[in-house]
Design brief:
The protein has 196 residues and is mainly α. It has helices spanning 7-28, 31-38, 42-48, 52-77, 81-98, 100-110, 119-138, 148-169, 178-193. Helix 1 packs across helix 4 (52-77). The protein starts with 6 loop residues before the first helix and ends with a helix.
Length: 196
């Protein structure tokens, strides 16, 4: 028998999954809880996903696929290393403003060893970062000793961590200021350029 798919129910399942995982962690959000929150029957959840892990992993891969698309767009559209870094930081800050649940979801799962991005997506991300390294070296914007893993940590992970700490320690003020963004950009650029 063919699966009957209602795109609104699938969308609600995805939104509920992201929000509950962001709020409670992977272990704290059950499939039954997700289905209840999304106003769908638990059977409908299992009709489309084998379990919570498959659902969460599918969402994580979708978020990283979006990131790969944006990373490629930034590298093609910008001309200097610093412009690309600014675009990446700006995009993550925009996500924090427009879809904070997605950013929190990404943060929670990036700290959970049970989840990793698939090999092809990881290759694309690190291929993009390798191109960034070459661009940074060619215009002398970065310390030539930096690796793609350093760049991943310094630009992507640091930005996500910075925003999540801000959400955690100042929940009463969800809007992130331009000054905070500029301060983070300044700190990242200082580390990237350090030629000690």
């Amino acid at each position: 028998m063919a699966r009957i798919t209602d795109s609104n129910r699938i969308k609600r399942l995805k939104e509920s999954t992201m929000r509950l995982v962001a709020e409670k962690g992977f272990g704290g959000a059950s499939a039954a809880m997700i289905a209840l929150d999304a106003h769908v029957a638990a059977g409908y959840f299992y009709m489309h996903y084998k379990g919570k892990y498959e659902m969460v992993n599918t969402l994580l891969q979708e978020v990283f696929q979006e990131a790969v698309f944006k990373l490629e767009e930034f590298l093609e559209g910008s001309h200097t290393f610093n412009q690309v870094v600014d675009e990446i930081i700006g995009h993550i800050f925009m996500m924090a403003s427009t879809d904070p649940v997605k950013l929190k979801f990404l943060y929670v799962l990036s700290n959970d060893y049970s989840f990793v991005i698939d090999h092809e997506t990881r290759q694309k991300v690190f291929g993009f970062l390798a191109r960034m390294i070459e661009l940074g070296k060619s215009d002398h914007s970065i310390d030539p000793r930096l690796t793609v893993h350093d760049l991943y940590l310094l630009v992507l992970v640091t930005t996500i961590q910075f925003i999540n700490l801000r959400f955690k320690f100042q929940p009463e003020s969800p809007a992130i200021s331009l000054e905070e963004k500029e301060h983070l950009r300044y700190m990242i650029q200082k580390v990237l350029k350090n030629n000690c």
